[in-house]
Amino acid sequence: MTNGPLRTLVLWCPDWPTNAAAVEQNFGADVPLALIERGEVFACSASARRDGVRRGLRVREAQSRCTELITLPYDPVLDHRAFEPVIAAVEEIVPGVQLSRPGTCVMRARGPSRYYGGERQAAQALLDTLVAIGVRNARVGIADGPFAAEQAAKLRKDIEADAIRIVPAAQSPRFLAPFGVDLLNRPELAVLLQRLGIRTLGDFAALDVLQVRDRFGPDGVLAHRLASGFDPSDVNARVPPADHSSAIEFEPPLDRVDQVAFAFRTAADEFVARLQSSSLVATAIRIEVRTENGESRSRTWLHPRWFTAGDVLDRVRWQLQGAGLAESGLSSAISSLRVEPESVDPAGNHEAGLYGGATDERIHSGLSRVQGMVGHAGVLTARIAGGRQPSERRVLVPWGDLPPGGEAAVEASQSLPWPGKLPGPPPATVFPERQAVIVHAAHGTDVLVDDRGELSDVPVEFAAPGTAAVPITAWAGPWPVTDRWWDAGGSRFHRFQIVDDTGAAWLLVLDDEGWWAEARYD
Questions:
Q1: What are phi and psi for residue 69, nearest 5 degrees?
Q2: In terms of C-beta density within 10 A (0-12 exposed, 13-18 middle, 19 or more buried), how is residue 105 classed?
Q3: Residue (of 270, 273, 302) closest to 286 by Cα position
Q4: What residue ranges in 74-138 does DSSP mark as E strands?
Q5: Residue 264: which of 310, 298, 302, 299 has the closest Cα?
Q6: Burial class (CB in 10 A: 0-12, 13-18, 19+), 246
Q7: Which end of the chain is least crowded, N or C, by CB within 10 Å?
């Protein structure tokens, strides 16, 4: 047992989040790509960095620096899922791997170096393994402790051209000394140290540890130990997750949806049974389809409760047929099909109560049965989102799916100010498509609004679609609304509220194309 820092090996795959997203979207390696989280750049590709894009920039600033920049929302699930094959490949040759984050993993160097005949040989074996699965730009750092080993792996190529950087034992303090204090990943501490004139890890390590403790507290002492090359961290190897996926190969490939669904029936039963044996249920699954020409298409499916074998088959059928019929053919024959759980939950959380949940069970069973007959998009549920017009606030989502962007995106859109939105109370009936109506003045002339927002005449007559004209008993407006004034494709319109002599109240819109009924107050 050693008393010093643990000899550690860090494997780092540069730009992993953007590489995973590029593979998922079939982008080329040189496409300038940025992943966005909370309105800021979370990660960017090498081509985007060459144009000045950096992590932490606002989206508009990043796009101004690189006009060809493609932005995508950062998906941590995709990040982890894409890195799982890399972890599995590494665990085949080196046991005891700790996942630091997608793209970076840590392991003890002593065992692999003894097995492969040296630290460099062990690192080269890891790189060769990754090249075999298509990861070619990985780098390895070996040093005393995970912190120094990670900095060795991330050493810039203009400083260290070799993909393997080994810091000799007991040399980590000298190696870390020139680096800036911002590497400690403590922004407030780094700013304070720089104000005090302490700009490098070597300068910080030269301070007396008692003075550091009195001034910066326990966390400052830990940062001081990292800067001094005495990383107390250990490697906590992960427990590889159980494989609950089910896959099937079709030989010869099948070109009909009903054939694929029938052939996968047994595999679907085994998929659900394997989860049940672990007292789990799947609330989200991922279906990956491979065609005989080598293409791969995958999609994540959600469920309002949990997946049964029949539900899995329905999702397989819907993904294959798209908008077609169950008996329709496929554009390319299917060579393999794989289903894996994307999200699991303990089965005990979904057990029925002592007296059951009759109402919810009947609703779920009925909607799922209808959805199985008419297709995935045949049964829709409504969500209320933000927007200026009533029709924009209605978001229709297939039963069991999340709204576009997730529930958080819908809630966030509701909280936005939306200047020009319709105040309450909202109309009871919002038409799927706005309907053309007629609004006349006393002499049968059209009622218009000039550029100053003044009416050409008083509206006295109203005709709804397919009905005769009726007198207007009350009206209010106009209320001008300018939508996307900064965009050439924006629009300007005026809202009105009227009540006809039948007692019906209407929400009308007047734009360049004429009068329209958007909704009715029932």
A1: -65, 130
A2: buried
A3: 302
A4: 98-101, 104-108
A5: 310
A6: buried
A7: N
**Cβ atoms within 10 Å, residue 430:** 17
Six-digit token string for 425: 């109370």
Q: Is there a contact between 498 and 462 (Cβ–Cβ < 8 Å)?
A: yes
Residue among 158, 198, 190, 177 at smallest CA distance from 167: 177
Cβ atoms of residues 268 and 312 within 8 Å: yes
Burial 7-44 (b: 16+ CB within 10 A, else e): bbbbbbbebbbbbbbbeeeebeeeebbbbbeeeebbbb
Which parts of 312-460 are beta strand (E)?
Answer: 329-346, 380-384, 394-398, 429-436, 438-440
Sort strands 470-483 and 164-166 into parallel, antiparallel or unpaired: unpaired
Task: Return the structure tokens found at 298.
Answer: 């995958």
Tens of pLDDT, residue by residue over 52-64, are 999 989 999 999 9
Span of 38-42, 155-159, 256-260 with lowest mean pLDDT = 155-159
| DSSP classification of residue 293 | T
Q: What is the DSSP string of 497-516?
A: EEEETTS-EEEEEEETTEEE
Element (H, E) at 119: helix 119-132
Q: Please, where are the H alpha helices in 26-72?
A: 46-50, 59-65
DSSP readout, 34-46?
A: EEEETTEEEEE-H
* Spatial separation of the C-alpha atoms in residues 413 and 366, rounded to whole Å: 31
Are the beta carbons of 446 and 509 closer than 8 angstroms?
Answer: no
Is residue 130 within 8 Å of residue 155, measured between CB atoms?
no
Distance, CA of 479 to CA of 420 (rounded, Å): 9
From CA 54, how far away is CA 41, in angstroms rounded? 7
Q: Token match 């494709």: residue?
A: 489
How far apart are the C-alpha atoms of 361 and 366, rounded to whole Å? Answer: 8
Strand order in the sheet with 296-302: 246-256, 329-346, 280-291, 296-302
* Type of residue numbered 200: T
What is the full DSSP assignment across 214-259? HHHHHHHHHHHHHHTT----------PPP---EEEEEEEEEEEHHH
Query: Quick check: 360 pLDDT over 70?
Result: no
Q: Give tens-digit pLDDT for 388-430.
A: 777 777 778 787 676 766 666 677 777 777 777 777 788 888 8
Query: The tokens of 504 are what?
Result: 């019906």
The vertex-77 CA angle with 75 and 80, nearest 5°, equals 115
